[in-house]
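Researcher: Please predict.
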Amino acid sequence: MMLFLPLSFEPVADLPDWLVILLFGIPFVGGITLYVYKTRHARSWRKGIFPQSLKPTEDNYLEAYLALGAKLMLYNYQESKEKIQFINHYFNRYFPKATYNFGDSLLFSLKYPIRTETITDWMKMHLKDEGSRSQIIYFLTGLALINGKMNSSELNFLKKINTDLDLTPDNLTKIIAIYAAYSEHRKEKETQKTAPSKKYAHEILGVPKNASQEEIKKAYRKLVKLHHPDRFATGTESQQKMAAEKFVEIQNAYESLIG
């Protein structure tokens, strides 16, 4: 038979006041401090602020991409199903090791739209080269052009992000042209026109159709310098993978025009 002894606080009452405060106060204050620390980022996000103290980890880059993607979705919510599929596929491809709940994170970002400059400021703090910052423009442009077209609000959003990332207007123009050419190339394949699209290769390199071989080589060297995988050796796995795929795309476009 178990005996239950009544609790007694008499020994505590005999302790000095300062020791009682120390014994019971520190755990209480510590618990409150831990709670505040754990929830500080969520509170910032609810105000639309991307916390500038976040470290440049794979998970945090993913959350930055997702917050901007969600903001873009709000400008054309009719295509939300296709856009969600695009984002999910993109993240599975480039952020396979990220630990996050896609549904919860997306709903949170849609409910609490981000102030975009808080993300672009954070990115500029950690992404010093143009190639790394351009990766977010590729992602957002692909999302906006999921069905081959975008509205004026989406275009203005892309222009703002491009400008806030200290990228030239020409950078966005080229990326939009690449996606437009890719969409056309995809339609050609669907209609069994198997000949490779020269226009797509020209758009990737950012040169006109009648460009000379010297102009093509010059554009190629510039892009290789910008997107070479070696420049991303210290970046995250997702940045390295994006850069590697972009580099191969540039290489193939160059060979199709020169070779």
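Model: DSSP finds twelve helices and no strands in the chain.
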